[in-house]
Structures are given as C-alpha cells and as structure tokens.
Design goal:
This protein is about 45% helix and about 25% strand. Helix 2 packs antiparallel against helix 3. A hairpin with a 2-residue loop joins strand 6 and strand 7. With about 375 residues, it is of the alpha+beta class.
Length: about 375
C-alpha cells in the first residue's frame, strides 16, 4: 500500500465513521476478490424482497431504496476489481423526516477475502480498518539485575507491555562464609527475577508468534547474556532473537535505545526508514539550509517551483492540505513520506509545523 492509497483509505473510513442511521438502515457489502458481481446483485435483489417485511414504513423505504441504489452502482462495473470491492449505501441526512440516499465504494489496496452483507445503524468498516493495521512486529526485552521490561515495536510505535523491578540485593563487602551465602541468595533472587521476565515475554510473544518477525534483547552489563543462556525464554522464541545490544538504560529509555541501536536488524522496517529520512532532512537543514524547507508556506512555495525532491508530512497534519500537497508533489515527481509521531524524529517534524521538504536545488 503506497502513501496515496493509505491516505485515501483513511479518509474514506473517517467519512463513513461520521454517518449514523436512525434505525438499521445503513447497508454494507464486501465483494471478495474474484467473486462474481452478478451473484452479489442477485443477493441484493433478494434482500429487497426481505426488506419489504420491515414494519417501520420509513426504515423499510430507506433500506429498499438503498439496496436499489447499490445495485445500480454495481452494474457500472464490468467485472469485480482486482482486490474486490467495498460498497456502502444509506440515508445520510441529518434531518428527521428527510431522506438523502448516497452510495460509497472503494477498491481496497489489499485483496478482500470475506463476503459480507450487513444492515445496521452504522457502516461495517472493520475489514477496511484492519488493512491499516501493522501486522508484523518485533518483540523487545530490556533487562539488568535491577529492572526488566518487555515491549513491542509495531510499525513505528514502541509499546511497553510490562515492567518489573527486581528484589535482587546489592553486593556485600562481607567476607568468608557470609559472602558466599550472600552470593547464593543474590543468584537465587536473580534467577527468580529472570524467570518472571521470561514468563512475561513468553506469554506476550507466543500469542503473536505468527506475526513476530524477530526479538531484540538489550541491557547494561552482562545480564542480558545470562538471561538468554538460561532456560527463561521459550526455545522457539530464542530462535527469533535477531539482535543483542549493550545499553545504558532500562525502562522506557532502554526500549527506545534498544530500537535505535538495532537499526541494522531493522533496516527494512518502517521505523528505520522514517528515522533515516528525517535524519537526512535534519542534516541538510543543518549544513545547507537553503536546500531544505519546513512549514506550510515555505514548502508550498518550493512545490510550486518544482524544487521539492522529498516531501515529509506528519500523519497528524491537516487532512485536506495533505491531499493537496501530495497531488502537487506527484505532479512534479517528488517522493512523499507520511511520518508518524511515534518516533522522536516524527515528533520533531510535528513540532516544526508538520510538513518539511528536501529540495532538488537551493532556493532563497
């Protein structure tokens, strides 16, 4: 799914989310890829007959008319689009007693596999929303003898799932048998702590193992190696460990640092790409400021000149302006990247106005 497709799908979903029926009169139909459209039309015609049994006259009329409008819309297609088709119809009027029947349709960016017919007070948009979700994730484990954290890297979002503080006592200065006994107590407490962190990681990661692309492990000192060499992490999950990194922190900072130090392992992932693009912009801004632009006025000016090479837009930027900027960028052959706010670099883009550009040539 490219940037434009993703933006179009998000806009389409938001449009449908705002519509509410007064009764179960909003019709949602999903046509799977490769499915015969004529069979869908026949089904909708049969549903018109069923709808004639609806007791409420107004609702009955809205459903029958919505189905008719949808049938006419489907007849405009010679065949089912490559990825299938999602079609929605209903009364979208906000005024009681007035009807304004509309039909909406989209060929989704990914193939539809499920056939759906539903009549409800809201449009059924779950299947479209699922297409926007990131399915591939990385597991994160940060550990030392004081603290342990288990999290996920999902797209560009770093999510802490659970955190633990250990009961492992500090080192003692006592000698002799007291020191040996104290060392055994420390080792016992450490093993209990490792087991607690391992159990949490096993529980969280095994539930999503089909989507788990890899596991990153890090922490200060040798504790992470002790943890991995023991029997704390499930053997199936151990095989998914793709990076082990020395860190200066645990906790939330540790999870961030682990991801930042694992860029080689994450080279093909969106978070790495975002960081690389944003760091490239910041480098140009620092060294050749007249070959970089940020803020809507400067970026629009550069787009109008055809000077933009790479356009960066925050995912939280104004939706309508985003569409206009993408159209201008495509017209001049500029690359477009939508940047999340989950990373530090993405937050920086948001804070400098939400839009920036690397230019092909310097402008004043």
């Amino acid at each position: 799914m490219d940037v434009k497709q993703r933006q179009q799908l998000k806009k389409f979903i938001r449009q449908l989310q705002l519509i509410r029926g007064r009764h179960t009169e909003l019709v949602s139909v999903y046509v799977p890829a490769g499915y015969d459209l004529n069979k869908i039309i026949q089904h909708l015609q049969a549903e018109q007959g069923t709808a004639s049994n609806i007791k409420d006259k107004t609702t009955r009329g809205h459903v029958i008319d919505s189905l008719e409008k949808m049938i006419r819309h489907l007849r405009l297609f010679k065949r089912t689009p490559e990825n299938g088709l999602a079609v929605f119809a209903g009364n979208i009027s906000e005024r009681e007693g007035q009807a304004r029947l509309e039909v909406f349709s989209i060929e989704p960016p990914k193939p539809l596999k499920t056939r759906v017919y539903r009549c409800d007070q809201t449009f059924q948009i779950d299947l479209l929303q699922e297409m926007l979700e990131v399915t591939d994730v990385y597991g994160l484990i940060v550990i030392d003898r004081r603290e342990g954290n288990v999290g996920l890297l999902k797209g560009t979002a770093i999510i802490e799932l659970v955190g633990f503080t250990s009961d492992v006592p500090g080192k003692t200065t006592k000698g002799g048998q007291s020191q040996q006994r104290y060392a055994r107590i420390r080792e016992g407490a450490a093993k209990e702590f490792f087991k607690k962190v391992g159990d949490a990681a096993n529980k969280e990661f095994l539930e999503i193992k089909t989507n788990l692309k890899g596991i990153l492990v890090g922490g200060p000192g040798p504790t992470k190696e002790e943890f991995l060499s023991g029997q704390y992490l499930n053997n199936e999950l151990k095989l998914k460990v793709v990076a082990v990194k020395d860190l200066g922190y645990t906790g939330d900072f540790g999870l961030q640092e682990l991801v930042e130090k694992s860029q080689e392992a994450l080279a093909k992932e969106s978070i790495s790409e975002e960081k690389k693009i944003m760091n490239g912009f910041l480098e140009v801004l620092g060294k050749e400021s007249n070959k970089a632009a940020y803020g809507i006025k400067e970026v629009e000016y550069a787009l109008d000149l055809g000077a933009v090479d790479i356009l960066l837009i925050s995912e939280e930027f104004n939706e309508e302006i985003t569409e206009t900027l993408i159209e201008k960028a495509e017209a001049s052959g500029a690359k477009v990247h939508i940047i999340s706010v989950e990373t530090r670099e993405g937050a920086q883009l948001r804070d400098i106005g939400g839009v920036a550009a690397i230019l092909r040539y310097a402008i004043s």
